Amino acid sequence: MKVSVLGLGFVGLTTGLGFAKKGFTTYGFDVNAERLQSLKKHVIPFHEPHLKEILEETDQKTFFLDSDFNEAIMQSDAIFLCVGTPEKEDGSADLTYIFKAIEQILAVPTKKFQVLITKSTVPPSTVSEEVIPFVKKILEQKNGERNIGFASNPEFLREGYCWEDFINPDRIVIGVESEASKNILETLYNPFNAPIHYVNYNTSEFIKYLSNTLLSTMISYANEMSMVAGSIGEIDIKKAFRVLHEDKRWYGNPAGMKNYVYPGCGYGGYCLPKDTAALIKISEKNGFSPPILKSNLEINRSIKSYLVDKVVKEHKSDVKIGILGLSFKPDSDDVRLAPPKEIIEDLVTRGYKNILAYDPVAVKEFKKYNGDLKIQYEETLKSLVESSEVLLLLTGWKEFKENEQLFSNKTLYDFRYFL
């Protein structure tokens, strides 16, 4: 198995050396001649621990920096694109370097099956809507033929810890949509003994952005909260955050906090909605309007109508809709400000009258607070399923997962991404 890596920055050099360390013949290329010359002298042109030692160990054994480009490409089973994708003025990703690298690769004739892999960070849909059409266009213009596959393999490397993160990954994400391409990537990554997640191209690219935007959002949230605290005054900001970090949900494997970083149909209950609203008000009273907190409430409102839109687009108003779950979370009968109530109300407002509902423990409480809602309550999960045409799962009760086979012949909207 032979590998070519185009682009020898933090990501490319680490990737190339990583595969070379695992014993794969790896060719490294970079358009920056000065950088390439430095690397040939075993000088790493940026600060990154361990890379110098690995370069010295693998150079001219499994890692090659002076190979002929055409010969290397012709021999390679996998070609990794690790070139820059800088930000344009409008905020979009500049794919110029990706396209230039692809043109260089396609200029080399070969009948060998190869996988073209984007490791550079690119927006979701880049491989499917940009890379693949570009490759087809180039080949059509040249009347050329290439037996080529595609893959997206995002990196999760922290600067300063690139080597540790690559050689001991916590997970490997591969967007691939053909068995031939998957087999090559599987051969390359099996020696790393890490969980490998095979998904489609878009999902792979999205996972990278999901990770980065979560981190950026947490940083901005923390900064906004420091501004809220500053506007109110007499708050020890550093101490407050240190105490926050002692929450046991941050720890463990897996950490409980992961349950909060997961989509659904919004939060409810007594505390989260009212406390978020109250903090916005006291902050505004003291002269600071917190945009993230305000957007927080807005998203929590709009997610319900967004989900109802999906049902409305696909089903007429006379359809019998079964609601799975009425409490705001499982293992609780608390229905205060529960998302199921708002979703049911929205459905009724849009003309849906045949609504049935079942919850293992919360029916009594739901009736108590929402007696004006004209819906039918079922005593068992089985009776609800039998009486409904369409099911909406709104609370992640264990009973629903244990009886998932009941839903096999029904249209089910799992709005908790639970089953």
Sum up the structure in keywords:
single chain, 419 residues, alpha/beta, eight-stranded mixed β-sheet, five-stranded parallel β-sheet, 16 helices, 13 strands, oxidoreductase activity, acting on the CH-OH group of donors, NAD or NADP as acceptor, UDP-Glc/GDP-Man_DH_C, EC 1.1.1.22, NAD binding
What does this structure look like?
With 419 residues, this protein is an alpha/beta fold. Helix content is 45%, strand content 13%. The strands form two sheets. An eight-stranded mixed beta sheet has the order 3-2-1-4-5-6-7-8, sandwiched between helices. Strands 11-10-9-12-13 form a five-stranded parallel beta sheet, with helices on both faces. The radius of gyration is 27 Å and the shape is globular. It starts with a strand and ends in a 5-residue tail after the last strand.
